[in-house]
Structures are given as C-alpha cells and as structure tokens.
Amino acid sequence: MSKPIINRRQFIQIIALASTSWPLISQAEKTSHLQTPRKSSDLVYKNLKDPWLSIAEVQEHLFPADDTSPGAKDIYALRFLRNMLDAPDTESEEKEFIIKGVGWLNDLSIKNYKQSFMKLSSKDKESVLRKIETSRAGSRWLNLMMTYLIEALLSDPIYGGNKDQKGWQWLEHIPGFPTPTSEQVYFKLGNQSNDLSQRRSQTLRATS
Q1: pLDDT tens digit string along 138-184?
Q2: How far is 186 from 82, CA to CA, in rounded Å?
Q3: Residue 72 and residue 87: Cα distance in Å, rounded?
Q4: Which residue in 23, 78, 126, 159 has a CA-CA distance of 20 to 30 Å to 85?
C-alpha cells in the first residue's frame, strides 16, 4: 500500500508546529519601526528595482500561488522581509549577506543564460537556484529566503506580512486573542529579540 502524499498545506502546518521550538515566528516580532499593512493600493510590488525586484522573483518562485493556496505576493512577503531587514536591531551582516546573494543570483543567470534572473523561464530559474544551493553560502542564502517566507506566512499582519490574514486562513489557524497592536509588539515586551539576532548572526558567520 502506498503512503499518503502530504499536501502543501499540511507541510506548512508541520513547520508551524515545529516552530514552537525554533525562532521562526519570534524573529518576525523584533522590529522597532514597522511598516504596517495598508489598503489594497499599497505599492509594495510596484516600481521595484534591484535588489528587491530579484528578491521578489525568488520569493514567488519558491512560494508560488496555486488554485488552493496563496503565494509570496499574496502574503506580502517582500514587505515583511524589508521590514525585518530595516529593523535597527537586525545585524547589518545579515542584510549585506542577503543583498550579496542577489549578486550571485544574477551573475550566475547571466553566465548561464545571458540574462538576469527575473527574465528567465521557470525551468531556468529552478536550475539557477539549484546551482546556488550547491555552495555552503548559497544554501544558507536560500534557507534565509525560505525562513522569511514562512515567517511572512505565519506572523501577525501587524509585522507587514500575512496580508489580510491569508496565511492563517489557508492553514485554518485561529490566532490568539487579542492580537497585538503597534504598542504591543514583541520587541517592546523584553529583550529576547536580541538573542534571536545573535543566533542568526552566528549562523551567518559560520557559513562565510
């Protein structure tokens, strides 16, 4: 008898459960100047330039929408990432590492396909990302991209991702009540965010 196939939503639910012992959600709660969600006229995905244009393409490739689930753009994953990287307590090394990864991405795309990553077909994008994954630093870069994507999906919308609670709705998650206001975000309740920043910084140094 064949084993049941786990679907995408079940996979994310498992990750969400595992995150209770891993700083996945908590990392989303450390910023001290948040760009909170606005109306549907939000321009987060309009008039983008690199490195954000390439990062948005990577996010959408790693977490595309389908008939039953939201994608990276639906949950405003890019705005969430920018909120996290712009937070004053985010290590500058982390932001530099992510930006540097965009350079590797486009250099490899141009070398192999004579055009930037965003212009590649889905198949060629996959090939480039698989190639980047083979290096230690490249693998860490992609892991960070996925970490921020999952955080954007699972975190409270007050942090900029999970637009209109689409991630929670898809996962059938019922959040705790009341949800935080701008005066009740995690960074104002203690200094655990500093511990999380140090952990991620140490991981990055280990791959450099």
Answers
A1: 999 999 999 999 988 888 887 788 888 888 888 787 777 676 666 65
A2: 18
A3: 21
A4: 126
